[in-house]
Structure formats: C-alpha cells, structure tokens
Design goal:
single chain, 130 residues, mainly alpha, two-stranded antiparallel sheet, two-stranded antiparallel ribbon, 6% strand
C-alpha cells in the first residue's frame, strides 16, 4: 500500500520537477531586479539576427530553429540539437547549471556578449510557454 502512494506522489511531482531549473532561474533573475518576463519579448530575442564580427548573421533560431519544439542543427558543426521546448523535451530546462552554462556560451557566440537577466528570463518564459 505504501509503495502505491509513493509511486502516485512521484507521478504527481514529475511534471513540476521537469521545469524546475527554469523556474528557479526565473526567481533568481527576478530577485536580481529583472522582470516581469515576457514570452513575446523572448520570442523576438530568439528570432533576432545579430551580425557577428565576421559578418555572419546569427540568431538563436540559426541553430535551434524558428520552432523550438523541433530539433535543430548547429551552424558550424552540423551536430543535431534536441528541441528546446520542455513540452517536447521535458529534461531540457531542468538543470539550472546547464541552463546558465549554455546561456553563457550561446549568448557570446550568437550575440557577441553575455545575455542580461531580463533577456534570459524572457527567453526561458518563451520556451516554457511552448
């Protein structure tokens, strides 16, 4: 009988945990003065093209695709990238350390700078809403 309750509790908690990393970071960004976060601004940031120092036009969608529910492909390496939307890939935004690591790398590579807490919060809000 106890096992049944433990399994039921685990099944109920799983959806809440799948977006835990993103939600934790949104709270951190808010505490740092960012927000309110806006999914439409996140979508616009996702699609915004920036010209790199080498003259290449890049955006988040250049590698991840314009529809984050679909798989993408890295521009340079051609390596497949799993969908970014947690609704399709539940573990995608579950680890705050990984999220921050990839924001750091991808913002610098794509936009030539680190992303602000507001930009990261808007993008996470957009992705979580898909």
């Amino acid at each position: 009988m106890k096992t049944r309750y433990i399994l039921l509790a685990g099944a109920l908690l799983l959806p809440a945990l799948s977006h835990g990393g993103g939600e934790e970071l949104l709270a951190r960004y808010s505490a740092a003065g960012a927000g309110p976060f806006d999914a439409e601004r996140g979508r616009q940031a996702w699609l915004a093209e920036v010209t790199s120092g080498k003259g290449d036009a890049r955006s988040c969608s250049s590698c991840h695709g314009s529809d984050p529910k679909q798989a993408g492909r890295h521009l340079r390496t051609r390596k497949a990238i799993k969908p970014m939307a947690p609704s399709v890939e539940p573990a995608r935004l579950s680890d705050p350390k990984k999220i921050e690591k990839w924001f750091l790398r991808n913002c610098k590579w794509t936009w030539g700078r680190t992303c602000s807490a507001q930009e990261k919060g808007d993008i996470l809000t957009y992705l979580n809403g898909l």
